[in-house]
Amino acid sequence: MESALWTRGAVMLFIEQEYAVRLSIRAVGDYLKRWGFTPKKPIKRAYEQRPESVKQWIDQEYLAIEKRAKAEGGETHWGDETALVNTDVLGRSYAPKGQTPVTMAVRGTRQKLSMISTVTNQGKASWMIIDGAFNHEKLIEFFEALVADGKRAGKKVFLILDNLGVHHCKPVKAWLAEHQADIEVFYLPSYSPELNLDERLNADLKHVISTRVPVITKAKLHAAAKNHMAFIETHSERVKSYFQDHHVKYAA
After folding, report:
1. What mean pLDDT is predicted for residues 59-78?
2. What 3-state DSSP class applies to 143?
3. Which neighbouring-strand residues pair with 157?
4. What is the CA 123 to chain-centroid distance, rounded?
5. Burial class (CB in 10 A: 0-12, 13-18, 19+), 99
6. Of 130, 89, 91, 125, which Cα lies nearest the Cα of 110?
7. Which tops the pLDDT comparison, 237 or 4?
8. Do residues 252 and 122 touch, judged by C-beta distance below 8 A?
9. pLDDT tens digits, residue range 69-115?
10. Are the C-beta atoms of residues 110 and 142 closer than 8 Å to each other?
11. Phi, psi (rounded to 5 degrees) for 36
12. Rounded to the nearest 5°, which phi and psi values hold at 207?
């Protein structure tokens, strides 16, 4: 099948090709519903992903990181960056039959912020909202905040990040080399970005912002992001639920 998604139309064509039976789109939808299938937003997965390598990373490298963290009284964090934009509209809205729901779009006032955050399987969330470009200076500033928080708790930070260029640049490597006693950084395999559990926090935040009344100013976008992140920070069970994602499940 050339279809990228298993839509009702794709299933209809598959049935016709395999069994020479022609069904209507509605009939296919009824069958799918009866069989327990529902429409879902697909998770993105890299074409070059190697499932056996993913399993190997989880079973060997990740478990080795966790073992070291426990032995050294440390704490494992999953970190990621994301962009927050006030023009995105996600989800669905109910309306009377035959009437298309309308949402008020922000026009000519596109605002953008960045955020870096981490989550732990014990339900802890750390974050920093950035007005402007994300660069190595902002990354180091966030590292410093993580280290300061770790010292207060008496725990070394074991941080798992994606393989972005900024994570490997010379200033970052030099800073990490000077603070090995307080923080160590490990990198996810480049073929599986969805392994990063902090992606679930990003999706949580973006969903909440996009389903509210559009925020016109950057200050209001910042306030909306800050309010929800403060909520997430105080609800450890919500953060722990990210680690129960059926695509990637880690022991809590």
Report:
1. 93
2. helix
3. 75, 183
4. 15
5. exposed
6. 89
7. 237
8. yes
9. 999 999 999 999 999 887 654 444 444 555 544 454 545 566 789 99
10. no
11. 95, 15
12. -65, -45
- Whole-angstrom CA distances from 8 to 3, 29, 38, 128, 230 are 11, 6, 11, 42, 41
Buried b (16+ CB within 10 A) or exposed e, 33-47: eeeeeeeeeeeeeee
Task: List, for residues 172-204, the tens digit of each pLDDT value.
Answer: 999 999 999 999 999 988 756 567 889 889 989
Report in angstroms the alpha-carbon separations of 36 from 27, 39, 200: 14, 10, 25
Angle, in degrees to the nearest 10, between helices 8-19 and 25-34:
90
Which phi and psi angles does 80 have, rounded to 5°? Answer: -160, 160
Q: Tell me how far apart the alpha carbons of residues 196 and 186 are, in angstroms, rounded to a whole number.
A: 12
Tokens of 122: 């014990």
Residue length of the chain: 252
Q: Is 181 left (phi over 0), alpha (psi -120 to 50) or beta?
A: alpha
Tokens encoding 40: 């879902």
Q: Report whether 199 contacts 193 (CB < 8 A).
A: yes
